[in-house]
């Protein structure tokens, strides 16, 4: 795990002075070794580097970019549980991530909610909420929990009769595959009575390696359905070429694209923003080029809407 800018700059062979670094950002640098090794050396504009480098531009207020752009706090009557959509509830299982993504929509979320006493209460709520079929372990990143903690929570969910599906949202299999490849967890998932889905988060084909392929293969072998979500980011993946390459490489590693999210307008992320008209143009090119199953749904999250809203031509 790299948390020092000097260490990162050494590894990627760039002088810190050449970068517009925010050295004491309140959302500090954090990047796993695997992800850092996928960054091209000597390239200040590398699309992976851009995702993790604290940039001074983040300090600049941008109109319309706010602390809670998706209204998570309003859908959060109980600490540790977010219930916005019919039939699905999101359990904030961990306050941490293995990586700090600069564009993260949860960078200002009050994560003390992920404390164990809170999610225990959240599980009790789920026992009584018989309309919920699917629980999504999210965070933060649930894979930052210990293997035993994850196995325990899965066991508790399996014991709730009205649940049919367990979904895990995690960036760890992509950014730190050695941490996600956990034999006991995989055994638990393969034996589970629940349908299991792992939604990873990968934005650029360079993030994928032989190690990610091995890790993802282990989940496939455990019978887990693998999907990807990405975020459309200026200077990272804002072209049909990059997104087509991403879909193809994900598919080779056993993963189908699910969502490509338009950026949530969170304070600090303004530098990644892409106009909707341009997003639509990229989507159009992508669907001309790829089989339908390799085209992610372009969506945006509008606070208060009952689903993630599909981008349309008239947006
Ligand atoms: C995105 C999200 C979900 C899952 O939505 P799907 O369309 O089922 O992938 C569930 N709960 C919350 C709070 C979400 O933000
Ligand atoms: S892994 Fe996901 S939740 Fe964690 S910082 Fe990145 S975008 Fe945010």
Automatic annotation (TrEMBL):
The gene is epmB. PANTHER family: L-LYSINE 2,3-AMINOMUTASE, LYSINE 2,3-AMINOMUTASE-RELATED. SUPFAM superfamilies: Radical SAM enzymes (SSF102114). This is L-lysine 2,3-aminomutase. Residues 83-294 form the Radical SAM core domain. The lineage of its organism: Bacteria, Pseudomonadati, Pseudomonadota, Gammaproteobacteria, Thiotrichales. The keyword Protein biosynthesis does not apply. Transmembrane segments: none annotated. Pfam families: Radical_SAM. The modification N6-(pyridoxal phosphate)lysine is found at residue 308. Gene3D superfamilies: Aldolase class I (3.20.20.70). Belongs to the radical SAM superfamily. KamA family.
């Amino acid at each position: 795990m790299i948390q020092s800018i000097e260490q990162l700059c050494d590894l990627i062979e760039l002088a810190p002075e050449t970068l517009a670094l925010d050295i004491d950002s309140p959302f500090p640098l954090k990047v796993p070794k695997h992800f850092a090794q996928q960054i091209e050396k000597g390239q200040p504009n590398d699309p992976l580097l851009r995702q993790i480098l604290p940039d001074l531009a983040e300090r600049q207020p941008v109109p319309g970019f706010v602390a809670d752009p998706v209204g998570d706090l309003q859908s959060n009557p109980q600490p540790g549980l977010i219930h916005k959509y019919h039939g699905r509830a999101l359990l904030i299982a961990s306050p941490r991530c293995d990586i700090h993504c600069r564009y993260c929509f949860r960078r200002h979320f009050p994560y003390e909610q992920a404390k164990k006493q809170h999610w225990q209460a959240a599980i009790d709520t789920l026992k009584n909420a018989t309309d919920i079929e699917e629980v999504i372990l999210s965070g933060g990143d649930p894979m930052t929990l210990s293997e035993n903690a994850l196995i325990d929570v899965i066991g508790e969910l399996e014991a709730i009769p009205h649940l049919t599906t367990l979904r895990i949202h995690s960036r760890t299999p992509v950014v730190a595959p050695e941490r996600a490849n956990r034999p006991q967890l995989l055994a638990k998932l393969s034996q589970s009575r629940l349908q299991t889905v792992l939604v990873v988060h990968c934005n650029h084909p360079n993030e994928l390696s032989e190690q990610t392929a091995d890790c993802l293969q282990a989940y496939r072998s455990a019978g887990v359905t693998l999907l990807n979500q990405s975020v459309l980011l200026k200077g990272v993946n804002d072209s049909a070429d990059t997104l087509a390459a991403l879909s193809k490489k994900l598919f080779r590693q056993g993963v189908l694209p699910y969502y490509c999210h338009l950026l949530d307008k969170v304070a600090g992320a303004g530098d990644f923003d892409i106009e909707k008209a341009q997003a639509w143009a990229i989507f159009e090119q992508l669907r001309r080029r790829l089989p339908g199953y390799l085209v992610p749904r372009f969506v945006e999250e509008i606070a208060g809407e009952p689903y993630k809203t599909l981008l349309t031509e008239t947006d």
